[in-house]
């Protein structure tokens, strides 16, 4: 670690540091733009990066567009079947959770969509309470591109998420600073109460297991387009050197946190997350849905 980096880390939060570190690549790319695009990008920097430094406001992705030349699909589901394809997916987390229950009945396919529903059920399989659903890919994968097109759920403290996880997150020893396995949140959508950033998603990487060794990097909040009413596409390009996050085909941010990218097989997870019991703020009768149009995973030829 350089002396300058050490000084910056004493002064700024990780969120602020992310923005500062982004300025160098951003400015280099800025001066490669033609005139009008350069002016637009500069205005974006003024109105987004600096408010983000000061107030934590979300940012709009402005990086390079996604290029999948040399990649091919190894997993794809457009949910056209009448029932969930259990050769591709497994139910995950069934049973009691903080705030309620996860159950397969909350997951269905309909009209070419995967629908996860969160709602209060008096006669639920585990008794009265809040119910939601979660899936994982039956297979595990390594380096590649992971993508979902979806409409996010809204309200009640629940949130939609598309993320990767690995057996290596069982402990700090297994995770090895992320090299042995990491949780990679391709997106989490829980900002609907934020007046400024309601259409933003949160991007994160966690390593070190879920005990005392847990270390997390919040990569900021990034804007989509009317994410609770329209379909947006969220992707992660996981290479041998870094994680690159995309929103609607445009790069948002990249990282190799912490001791390097995961080299372990990871599985994809689709979840409509339950909040803690005390965070539930809707009454019985409320429900919300996470609607997924497609999921695909690509790897190099």
Counting helices, strands and paired strands, the structural category is alpha+beta
Count of beta strands: 18
Structural Rg: 20 Å
What is the ordering of alpha helices and beta strands? HHHEEEEEEEEEEHEEEEEEEE
Largest sheet: 11 strands, mixed
Query: Mean pLDDT, as a whole number?
Result: 87
Give the proportion of residues in helices. Answer: 10-25%
Proportion of residues in β-strands: 35-45%
Principal-axes shape call: globular
Low-confidence stretches: 7-13
The N- and C-terminal alpha carbons lie at a distance of: 36 Å
Question: Number of helical segments?
Answer: 4
What does this structure look like?
The strands form 2 sheets. Strands 1, 3, 4, 5, 6, 7, 9, 14, 15, 16 and 18 form an 11-stranded mixed β-sheet that branches. Strands 2-8-17-10-11-12-13 form a 7-stranded antiparallel β-sheet. A hairpin with a 4-residue loop joins strand 14 and strand 15. Helix 2 packs antiparallel against helix 3. With 301 residues, it is an alpha+beta fold. Helix content is 17%, strand content 38%. The protein is globular. It is built from 4 helices and 18 strands.
Q: TL;DR?
A:
With 301 residues, this protein is of the alpha+beta class.
Task: Describe the protein's topology.
Blueprint: H1 3-11, H2 14-30, H3 35-55, E1 71-77, E2 89-91, E3 95-97, E4 100-102, E5 107-110, E6 113-121, E7 129-132, E8 134-137, E9 144-151, E10 159-165, H4 172-175, E11 183-189, E12 200-207, E13 215-223, E14 232-238, E15 243-247, E16 250-255, E17 267-273, E18 287-300
Parallel strand pairs: 4-7
Antiparallel strand pairs: 1-18, 2-8, 3-4, 5-6, 6-7, 6-18, 8-17, 9-14, 9-18, 10-11, 10-17, 11-12, 12-13, 14-15, 15-16
Helix pairs in contact: 2-3
